[in-house]
Write a structure and sequence with these properties.
single chain; about 400 residues; alpha/beta; Aspartate Aminotransferase, domain 1; Aspartate Aminotransferase, domain 2; 2 domains; seven-stranded mixed β-sheet; 15 helices; about 45% helix; about 10% strand; globular; binds (2S)-2-hydroxybutanedioic acid; pyridoxal phosphate binding
Length: about 400
């Protein structure tokens, strides 16, 4: 038979946890696996601003005919502004353009194909560790994937090691950087660290690909864009992958963009022609609904204000959960050992727990997290931090 030789591959390590969690009958279970924001009821809410924008679309949208290869031009302009800043010179000079993609993952996939076909011979450098899908997306596009160190064996951000490796990356290679809320660690670079990375990127003539999936979840919508805007202002060419999954709560509607910054308007058109061609062969034209919601919100001052307040509420709740968890660990004598949970940024914490401890947490306490020790702090509810701390203490022995 045709399919005889086909074997089975293991399920996705992150999405697979959703199934395991769903099957667990323990009412006290914790879902700290996949990176989705949850409220204190354990629900991933649809922001009110999104609901209002959706209602407006239901009332006014006149057609669902195809949108072009780059997606909705209004969405593209507004997302570029959100990422690059309202007064961005790149936008004014027509040096930056967005291609709408199915989520941030689609933007990464599009950049991987673009690099493979239009920049042959370039390797891609990822942080160690990184989001596991970064590894496979670039490898599946046929690119050589290498790593720069990011976290030391004692679970600290190791900027010196990162810079040392980047200084030896072959000229012209692509370096993937996390703009904020590093996935999986939650350790972010300081502004001074970013300036040093920029110096090396410039010296080695590297092409930065900045993954920006958590705008608003670190220090705020504007603050989180600082490094992206620095690189875009200082370098002639930058690729940025933006996601609206988390900050708009539009996960399943798949909204993202690949924003290209080029040396001039003509070159941007060349690159965009390649992207349209590649996108046509990947997904033809992008899904529209979520992007239309984002465009409706960002294009209306009142809705935009409501949305940015809602993002801020999610951000500050995550910060409170981080502080609360460290506090709950204190009676177990573990506040110092896990102090990093309080200072990391975004949804994720690289806890420092081993794969074995993660297994025990799951089997003994129904606490679900990625085997790397990554916990989605945004998945806990504040009333159960004591219970979670007890479970962590039990396996931390
Ligand atoms: C995560 O890392 O959990 C999120 O980015 C969701 C995903 O698609 O893996």
């Amino acid at each position: 038979m045709h399919f005889d030789a086909i074997g089975r591959v293991p399920g996705d390590p992150i999405l697979g946890l959703m199934d395991l969690y769903a099957q667990d009958a323990n009412p006290d279970k914790f879902d700290l696996g996949v990176g989705v924001y949850k409220d204190d009821q354990g629900l991933t809410p649809i922001p009110d601003s999104v609901k209002r924008a959706e209602q407006r679309l239901v009332d006014t949208q006149a057609t669902k005919t195809y949108i072009g290869g780059h997606g909705d031009a209004v969405f593209g302009a507004l997302i570029s502004e959100l990422v690059l800043g309202a007064g961005s010179a790149l936008i004014a000079e027509r040096r930056a353009g967005a291609t709408q993609t199915p989520g941030g993952t689609g933007a990464l996939r599009l950049s991987a194909d673009f690099i493979a076909h239009s920049l042959p011979g370039r390797g891609v450098w990822l942080s160690n560790p990184t989001w596991p899908i970064h590894e496979t997306i670039f490898a599946k596009a046929g690119l050589k994937v290498s790593h720069y160190p990011y976290v030391s064996s004692d679970n600290r951000l190791d900027v010196a090691a990162m810079l040392a490796t980047l200084s030896n990356v072959p000229k012209g290679d692509v370096v993937l950087l996390h703009a904020c809320c590093h996935n999986p660690t939650g350790f972010d670079l300081s502004r001074d660290d970013w300036r040093q990375v920029l110096r090396i990127v410039r010296e080695r003539q590297l092409l930065p690909l900045i993954d920006f999936a958590y705008q608003g979840f670190g220090d705020g919508l504007e603050q989180d864009a600082w490094a992206v805007r620095l690189f875009a202002a200082e370098l002639p060419e930058v690729l940025i992958t933006s996601s609206c999954s988390k900050n708009f709560g539009l996960y399943r509607d798949r909204v993202g963009a690949l924003i290209v910054c080029a040396a001039d308007a003509e070159k941007l058109m060349d690159v965009r022609s390649q992207l349209a061609n590649t996108a046509r062969n990947l997904w033809s034209t992008p899904p529209d609904h979520g992007a239309a919601v984002v465009a409706t919100i960002l294009g209306d001052a009142e809705l935009k204000q409501q949305w940015s307040d809602e993002v801020e509420a999610m951000r500050s709740r995550i910060a409170q959960l981080r502080a609360g968890l460290v506090e709950a660990l204190a009676p177990h004598g573990l506040a110092e050992r896990f102090a990093h949970i309080g200072t990391q940024r975004g949804m994720f914490s690289y806890t420092g727990l081993s794969a074995e401890q993660v297994r025990q947490l799951r089997e003994k306490h129904s606490v679900y997290m990625v085997s790397s020790g990554r916990a989605n702090v945004a998945g806990v509810d504040a009333t159960r931090l004591t219970l979670l701390a007890q479970a962590i203490a039990d396996v931390s022995g």
